[in-house]
Design brief:
With 214 residues, the chain is of the alpha/beta class. It is 41% helix and 19% strand. The chain has a single domain, classed as 3-Layer(aba) Sandwich (Rossmann fold). Strands 2-1-3-6-7 form a 5-stranded parallel sheet, sandwiched between helices. Strands 4-5 form a two-stranded antiparallel ribbon. It is globular.
Length: 214
């Protein structure tokens, strides 16, 4: 079975640097033998804000409010994946509202984690999956760490993915975008391709280990 990688491009702006990075990653991951699906929030529907709590949860009975069809499709993509890769720009120290809307509607639906009775710990329903975070930003790395406390990657890695059982295997930061030249951006795109090849190879290894254990 080929490794399954889900790429999420978390920006509402079409034709961005993140799209170039994601395209290079996808092409090289597929060349490395991975099956890859892409959710591009610049072109695919951005989940709307819920107005009732029931809209957030997967229905348990026929009387419950059904999930939005786009959200249900996104949930199936995450379920399908062995490895999830986020590409996003840093906006206001974190990530765009489009990506936050995706996370709120998809990961809060009830398939990613479950609350434990009388415990602050979650039942991590996505355990066994891995993730990678690739972000672009104008902030210098030192400023991002000291002033912003790595807010975007910390939120994704620990508060969201880790809470659901997903292990983040790498965080890549391309900066500064604002003052970068074409040659530097081309180097970043090439690096994204190398990450795709690396993740495809790592996913193949994990798949073989899982088969051996089974």
């Amino acid at each position: 079975m080929n490794p399954r990688i889900l790429v999420i491009v978390g920006t509402p702006i079409t034709g961005s640097l993140n799209h170039s990075l994601a395209t290079a990653y996808v092409d090289d991951a597929r060349a490395g033998g991975a099956d890859v699906r892409v959710i591009d929030l610049a072109n695919d529907p951005i989940p709307g804000h819920p107005t009732h709590r029931d809209e957030l949860r997967m229905p348990r009975t026929d009387d419950d409010t059904p999930l939005d069809a786009d959200v249900a499709a996104y949930i199936e993509d995450v379920r399908w994946a062995d490895h999830i890769v986020f590409f996003h720009p840093q906006w206001w120290g974190t990530y765009p509202a489009a990506l936050k809307a995706f996370i709120d509607r998809v990961f809060l639906s009830g398939f990613a984690f479950r609350y434990r009775a009388k415990s602050a710990l979650s039942e991590r329903l996505l355990a066994g999956r891995t993730a990678r975070i690739v972000m672009t930003m104008d902030s210098p790395r030192l400023w991002n760490r000291l002033a912003y406390r790595n807010a975007a990657e910390t939120s994704l890695k620990r508060a969201i993915l880790g809470y659901c059982g997903v292990k983040t295997v790498g965080v890549t930061r391309f900066t500064p975008v604002r003052f970068s030249e074409d040659e530097q951006r081309s180097g970043w795109v090439a690096e994204a391709g190398r990450l795709g090849r690396r993740d495809a190879a790592a996913s193949v290894t994990r798949s073989r280990e899982a088969v051996a254990v089974a």
